[in-house]
From TrEMBL, chain A:
UniProt topology in membrane: Multi-pass membrane protein
Organism: Pelagibius litoralis
Keyword terms: Amino-acid transport, Cell membrane, Membrane, Transmembrane, Transmembrane helix, Transport
Family matches, as Pfam families: BPD_transp_2
CDD domains (UniProt xref): TM_PBP1_LivH_like, TM_PBP1_LivM_like
GO molecular function terms listed in the Swiss-Prot or TrEMBL record: branched-chain amino acid transmembrane transporter activity
Family recorded in the similarity comment: Belongs to the binding-protein-dependent transport system permease family. LivHM subfamily.
Entry keyword Metal-binding: no
Chief localization: membrane
GO terms classed as biological process: amino acid transport
Protein name as it appears in the record: ABC transporter permease
Residue spans crossing the bilayer: 6-29, 36-54, 60-87, 99-118, 143-163, 229-254, 260-280, 311-329, 335-353, 389-409, 416-435, 458-486, 507-527, 547-570, 582-603
Compartments it resides in: Cell membrane
GO CC, alphabetical: plasma membrane
TrEMBL record, chain B:
Source organism, top-level taxon: Bacteria
Similarity remark: Belongs to the ABC transporter superfamily.
Keyword Transcription regulation belongs to the record: no
UniProt KW keywords: Amino-acid transport, ATP-binding, Nucleotide-binding, Transport
SUPFAM superfamilies: P-loop containing nucleoside triphosphate hydrolases
Every ABC transporter domain range: 2-233
Database matches in InterPro entries: AAA+_ATPase (IPR003593), ABC_transporter-like_ATP-bd (IPR003439), ABC_transporter-like_CS (IPR017871), BCAA_Transport_ATP-bd_LivF (IPR052156), P-loop_NTPase (IPR027417)
GO MF annotation list: ATP binding; ATP hydrolysis activity; branched-chain amino acid transmembrane transporter activity
BP-aspect Gene Ontology terms: L-amino acid transport
Species per Swiss-Prot/TrEMBL record: Pelagibius litoralis
Protein name listed in UniProt: ABC transporter ATP-binding protein
UniProtKB/TrEMBL annotation, chain C:
Keywords: ATP-binding, Nucleotide-binding, Transport
Cross-referenced InterPro entries: AAA+_ATPase (IPR003593), ABC_AA/LPS_Transport (IPR051120), ABC_transporter-like_ATP-bd (IPR003439), ABC_transporter-like_CS (IPR017871), BCA_ABC_TP_C (IPR032823), P-loop_NTPase (IPR027417)
One GO cellular component term noted in the UniProt record for this chain: plasma membrane
Residue runs in coiled coils: none
Swiss-Prot/TrEMBL GO biological process terms: D-alanine transmembrane transport; L-alanine transport; L-isoleucine import across plasma membrane; L-valine import across plasma membrane
Cleavable signal peptide: none
Pfam families in the record: ABC_tran, BCA_ABC_TP_C
Record organism: Pelagibius litoralis
Keyword hit for ATP-binding: yes
Name this polypeptide is given: ABC transporter ATP-binding protein
Domain ABC transporter: 15-256
GO MF annotation: an example: L-isoleucine transmembrane transporter activity
Presence of keyword Cytoplasm: no
């Protein structure tokens, strides 16, 4: 009895920090329409700042709480800096750029925290005066947890008052619905945005700080909490603070009780809970359907036209050059180009989903890594021959995509994106934690191709054939009735449904196809390296794919190849530095800020004019208002 | 008091307005009339700073508005009632009005919430209801009331009759006449010539982004050629 | 007019709506509505904003599920079927705010319908670039848009988009066409042309059309019969003349007649 009650209370206690962070994310998204990927980093910073401030000023009971508030304030300042220097310039840019920029911030914060606080996990200080335990029916319960239980509802009440009883709150809610209109009524939107961003950041920081005595501070907190926050926001219902609170409680309880019932399966439980709720209520517990047809604008929505003659010649030359490469360059470079080919197929599969389907997946690495693991597991446990394993890699990834996609296509736009990320994080955790099967962090080793394909040159040519073949297949599908049907669902949901297109089915099929293609790339990858680690499924790898799409030409066959090449080059240049994440993050932010309309877009504009590629970039401004409710 | 001289406006790359000039004097109601896509809403959004204006001048009471962000333009006293109403659907009527509140300004009529509830008795009864649950006509009234909460010195009214029942349009005509009684000038964009002729003093006809006719409402009604050519009546 | 309308209504109706109701969170949006759409009829559905016209339309094509009631298409029950299913059975629709695929050409927009109708959308390898072009051009010819077949839909004028929508709706060879404010946002002459086109399609193809509209000149000039909704309930049904002189309709919808009707007096 006591055990369960304590477990219940302890779940409520963990819910508070999660709720604080998630409500901040929700507020920021509501007002600025930016999904702040760096929100997990703000949470982590809150913990680190809290650690430092408690040591500096947190002597007594009051000092401790002052220190936590100072930590929240400090994170608010970081948020202010991020908003002011980066996001403010990107509000009008396609969403993809904002996301990539906040991802750059994640990298910067990771290395900054490493530099300031070092690589060791920090043990959280205990709260003075609250270090004791109480016994509930004989079971011990930390007093601090009881205090934490109160913090969530307290903040919830404060937020409710703020949003319903103050003019600022009313304006924030108004801006959440129609920010342009708020501006036209004489409200300085910039200030409102900055305010909302700072408030959201502070909530994340406070969330990170108050959990210090329970969980301490470490460098892996950012991605861990990020996926959980996304789950909370999606399950609770976007834009509903009450919903976020409910979902945070639900998920925390599930976690704490899950440990009692099925210690290794808590993530699976979370997955099932999320799935059930989304099937029953696609808008989340307290969410309302999006008013208007808010769509994720990825900036790659133009029509694709069949290649013109100049372009075909260009592609022919590129292929000829790649075919001749083994005669021209050293083996070292062949390995590098093999990497590029693998990544190009990976990026093309994501690009297909984004451009033709309008579906931005933040978790595409789940399928890339999924394919790699499928092949590696088959080789390790079933002694599957190389050729068959390579063939089964896309199948495995496709099956995974079928399961994940079945849930994800129920949502659209940014919710779809968040859900893909959450599922990918679950997939990563399964691989990471199920070490009996996957060897966890040590990875699966010794996954080599058959003797005939093991030479660098032969494997390079094989990778070239498969990657080029895959890319051509994807392109073929784009121009097939299937691709047209998919584009129809992207262009106008309303019209697509009215002409009998089963939108979800079309999208799911596309998701599975793209997942399978990413899996094929993953299969190629694992046999080129001989090993696979959980990293290949991680959030950063998903972002690599997004970055490649951003860097490469978005409208063209060669785009993802160019993107993959640029990415590989960038990565290889930076990896030699100790703080390479910092440099990569800064580079990403700089690229996005310098070319807010898209690096590829700018290049394509000039190059395309030269190559006469601009056949039909149909405007989309005209139908920007489609789908508004009557 | 509002003078627009030779503005050119763009939506992305598309050149929407060319060389548009018009003016609005105190106490007068001027209609900008033309068919869908002719440039009416773009003209109004250009004044509000909501679309890119590349050249020309927009002056209001001696201030140059060209290049200013929308919120500053609104604070100078331009009240904007958008097309398709755009109420904040999840906010109550009272909260919608609160969102429009701006300090009173000299030379412009002052509006309090109670004045507006007098003008729109329907809204008063429903003040704690979410705006999204109102009928189309009530929402149109609410957007006008919300704009008046900013105590504007002139009003831009974008297609107020579009998609509304005839009986509601008649109510809107009465409201416009009452506002005019406060000597607030109104620039109205409209397609419906009947509606325009009932409330307006002067008219500009716009087609493919250029002003094609300017004159009194009566001159327009008598000019069958212009009506045929640009308004397809 | 009145006699032929009644005579038609006496035949087997295309669409037979009985006791249709729908509530949203306690608000009765549509309350016990019954009417028939006769074969070859142009029937107008009018009423104030928020009277339930859109909800009614959305129930007829399956986008919203009715709480109770029945909708029969030539005897077949439609309630409970998906929008795609209802569309396949021959109920087409156009939208108040045009909904086309802006990244495709006019001809491709129409070809999309044909591909969907023929269940080709999961075909992965055939090219779709000029698929069903002849049939698409023929449909575009019907609405006078064949000359613009290769322009992207995103750059068309509003009136032309409406015509494309009509061609798209006809692609499925519907028996019933639902048109939601077909002339909204058009100039008077364009309005008359579009409704003339609709009337021609009704007589040439044997279509039945149900449309909503706020332009009373269009309603009185083109509809064979008119039904009036107010606060979710059907308050009147009849010819133009009957509706124009119905005191309840005047009070709830038409008003004093200031803003329509001068064209024909």
């Amino acid at each position: 009895m006591g055990v369960y009650l304590v477990q219940f209370l302890s779940g409520l206690a963990s819910a508070s920090a999660l709720f604080l962070a998630a409500s901040g994310l929700s507020i920021i998204f509501g007002v600025t329409r930016v999904v702040n990927f760096a929100h997990g980093s703000f949470y982590m910073l809150g913990a680190f700042f809290g650690y430092t401030f408690v040591r500096e000023v947190g002597g007594g009971a009051i000092g401790f709480w002052v220190a936590l508030l100072l930590a929240a304030l400090a994170v608010g300042l970081v948020g202010l800096l991020v908003e002011f220097v980066i996001l403010r310039r990107l509000y009008k840019a396609p969403e993809l750029f904002q996301l990539i920029a906040t991802f750059g911030v994640i990298l910067i914060v990771q290395d900054a925290a490493l530099w300031v606080w070092g690589p060791e996990d920090l043990l959280g200080p205990r709260a003075p005066g609250l270090t004791g335990i109480v016994r509930i029916f004989g079971t011990p319960m930390p007093v601090y947890d009881l205090v934490l239980i109160g913090v969530g509802p307290l903040v919830l009440a404060a937020l409710w008052l703020l949003f319903n009883r103050t003019r600022w709150g009313i304006l924030v809610r108004a801006a959440t619905e129609d920010r342009e209109m708020v501006g036209a009524l004489g409200v300085n939107q910039s200030l409102l945005f900055t305010g909302a961003f700072v408030l959201g950041s502070m909530l994340a920081g406070l969330g990170g700080a108050i959990q210090l005595p329970k969980g301490g501070a470490d460098l892996l907190m950012d991605f861990g909490i990020l996926a959980e926050m996304f789950v909370v926001v999606v399950v609770g219902g976007m834009g509903s603070i009450f919903g976020a609170f409910l979902a945070a409680v639900l998920i925390s309880l599930l976690n704490t009780f899950g440990i009692l019932i099925w210690p290794s399966g808590t993530l699976v439980l979370m997955f099932i809970l999320m799935a059930v709720i989304l099937v029953v209520r696609p808008t989340g517990l307290l969410g309302r359907p999006e008013s208007g047809g808010h769509k994720t604008e990825v900036g790659v929505e133009q029509a694709l036209r069949p290649a013109g003659p100049h372009y075909k010649i260009f592609i022919g030359l590129l292929l000829a050059l790649l075919l001749a490469a083994p005669l021209i360059v050293e083996e070292f470079y062949l390995v590098l180009i093999t990497d590029v080919l693998v990544l190009a197929l990976f990026a093309t599969s994501l690009h297909f989903l984004m451009s033709t389907g309008g579906l931005v997946s933040f978790g595409h690495a789940a399928f890339y890594g999924g394919g790699a693991y499928a092949a590696a597991l088959l080789v390790t446990y079933a002694a599957t021959p190389f050729e068959l394993a390579l063939l089964l890699a896309p199948l495995g990834a496709g099956l995974l995509a079928l399961v994940i996609g079945w849930f994800c296509v129920r949502l659209s736009g940014v919710y779809f994106a968040m859900l893909t990320l959450a599922f990918a994080q679950v997939a990563w955790s399964v691989v990471f934690q199920w070490s009996d099967l996957t060897n966890g962090d040590d990875g699966l080793l010794g996954i080599w191709p058959s003797a005939w394909a093991s030479g660098t040159q032969v494997y390079y040519l094989l990778a070239l054939a498969i990657s080029a073949g895959g890319i051509f297949l994807i392109r073929r599908v784009v121009f097939a009735p299937f691709g047209y049907g998919l584009r129809a669902t992207r262009d106008s949901n309303l019209r697509a449904a009215a002409i009998g297109i089963d939108i979800k089915r079309q999208q799911l099929a596309a998701f599975v196809f793209a997942g399978a293609m990413a899996g094929l790339a993953g299969g190629l990858f694992v046999f080129s390296k001989g090993s696979v680690f959980p990293d290949e499924m991680s959030i950063p790898r998903s972002f690599d794919a997004l970055l490649m799409v951003l860097l490469g030409g978005v409208d063209s066959l060669s785009g993802p190849f160019v993107g993959a090449a640029a990415f590989t080059y960038l990565h290889d240049e930076l990896i030699t530095f100790e703080y390479w994440r910092l440099l990569l993050g800064l580079t990403i932010v700089a690229l996005v800020l310098l070319f807010p309309q898209g690096l590829a877009g700018a290049a394509k504009h000039h190059l395309g004019r030269y190559l006469k590629l601009e056949a039909g970039s149909a405007g989309r401004a005209k139908q920007a208002d489609e789908g508004r409710p009557a | 008091m509002l003078t627009i001289e030779k503005i050119h406006s763009y939506y992305g790359q598309a050149h929407i307005l060319s060389d548009v000039s018009l003016s609005l004097s105190p106490g007068e109601i001027v209609v900008l009339i033309g068919r869908n896509g002719a440039g009416k809403s773009t003209t109004i959004k250009s004044i509000m700073g909501m679309v890119k204006v590349t050249q020309g001048s927009i002056r209001f009471g001696g201030d140059e508005l060209f290049g200013e962000p929308p919120y500053r333009i609104a604070r100078r006293g331009i009240g904007y009632v958008p097309e398709e109403r755009r109420v904040f659907a999840r906010l109550t009527i009272q909260e919608n009005l609160e969102a429009g509140r701006q300090p009173p300004r000299d030379g412009a009529p002052r509006w309090q919430v109670d004045d507006l509830f007098d003008l729109f008795p329907n809204l008063a009864e429903a003040r704690h209801r979410a705006a999204g649950t109102l009928s189309g006509g009530e929402q149109q009234m609410l957007t006008i009331a919300r704009t008046l909460m900013g105590n504007p010195g002139c009003i831009l009214l974008d297609e107020p009759s579009e998609g509304l029942a005839p009986v509601v349009v008649e109510q809107i005509i009465k409201v416009i006449q009452q506002i005019k009684g406060q000597s607030l000038p109104i620039l109205l964009s409209e397609q419906n010539l009947y509606f325009a002729s009932l409330v307006s003093d002067r008219a500009y006809v716009i087609e493919t982004g250029r002003i094609r006719f300017s004159g009194t409402m009566r001159e327009l009604e008598e000019n069958a050629e212009i009506r045929q050519q640009y308004l397809a009546v | 007019m009145s006699d032929t309308a009644t005579a038609r209504a006496a035949e087997q109706p295309s669409l037979s709506i009985r006791n249709l109701s729908k509530a949203f969170g306690g608000v009765q949006a549509v309350n016990d509505v019954s009417f028939d759409l006769a074969k070859g009829e142009l029937l107008a559905l009018i009423g104030p904003n928020g009277a339930g016209k859109s909800t009614c339309f959305n129930m007829l094509n399956g986008q919203i599920r009715a709480d109770s009631g029945s909708v029969r298409l030539a005897g077949e029950e439609l309630i409970g079927r998906s929008p795609a299913d209802i569309w396949r059975r021959g109920v087409g629709r156009t939208f108040q705010i045009t909904a086309t695929f802006p990244s495709m050409t006019v001809a491709e927009n129409v070809a999309m319908v044909l591909m969907s109708q023929r269940r080709e959308l999961f075909s992965l390898f055939r090219t779709a670039v000029h698929r069903h072009r002849d049939k698409a051009l023929a449909l575009l010819d019907l609405v006078g848009m064949a000359a613009q077949a290769d322009r992207p839909c995103g750059v068309l004028s509003y009136g032309d988009l409406k015509r494309v929508e009509l061609a798209v709706a006809l692609g499925n060879e519907p028996r019933v066409l639902l048109m939601d404010e077909p002339t909204a946002g058009m100039a008077p002459r364009e309005r008359i042309e579009l409704m003339g086109l609709a009337a021609r399609l009704v007589s040439d193809l044997g279509l039945s059309v149900l449309f909503t509209e706020h332009d009373m000149d269009i309603v009185f000039g083109h509809a064979g019969r008119i039904i009036v909704l107010s606060r979710g309930a059907l308050i009147a049904e009849g010819t133009a003349q009957e509706i124009r002189s119905n005191p309840l309709v005047l009070k709830t919808y038409l008003g004093e007649g200031q803003i329509y009707g001068r064209a024909e007096g």
